[in-house]
Write a structure and sequence with these properties.
Layout: E1 5-11, H1 17-29, E2 33-39, H2 47-55, H3 68-71, E3 78-81, E4 98-101, H4 114-139
Parallel strand pairs: 1-2, 1-3, 3-4
Helix pairs in contact: 1-4, 2-4
């Protein structure tokens, strides 16, 4: 029987922050956690997010943008909101779980100024990995 804790990361669109968190946790501690993510809305994972994760030897290919309805029948032990502004927007979850709130601002990714966006994503990945490592040490 799988004893891994089930974790879900939540963001606005599930295209950047929560995908980075999902892929990072899966990469770092798959043996301890089963991990998913969802957004209040969904869109495609931004190509620069996938590119930055791949440049760090992480595989984003099994992560896709989805809304709550896709994962609502799963029960998560820990739900992590990527920003405090999501607290009032989270769908009602009718089972016991631990709710964590992180403070990662959304990055507005567009098709222009790719270098600037890539640098912002690199910084986000660095900060996220630090937070993920702390999370793993506490919850593994």
């Amino acid at each position: 029987m799988d004893k891994r804790k089930k974790v879900c990361f939540v963001s606005d669109n599930n295209t950047c922050r929560s995908i980075i968190a999902e892929v990072s946790l899966r990469h770092l501690a798959r043996q301890y956690f089963e991990v998913q993510s969802f957004g209040l809305k969904a869109d495609r994972v931004h190509y620069l997010v996938a590119s930055v994760l791949q440049s760090r030897d992480m595989n984003p290919n099994y992560s896709f943008s989805k809304v709550f309805e896709v994962v609502e029948n799963q029960k998560f032990d820990i739900i992590v909101l990527m920003h405090p502004s999501l607290k009032d927007k989270l769908p009602k979850i009718d089972y016991d779980h631990e709710l964590l709130v992180w403070d990662f601002e959304a990055i507005a990714l567009s098709e222009d100024d790719e270098d600037r966006h890539r640098k912002a994503l690199e910084s986000l990945c660095d900060a996220m990995m630090k937070q993920i490592k702390t999370f793993v040490e506490k919850y593994k």
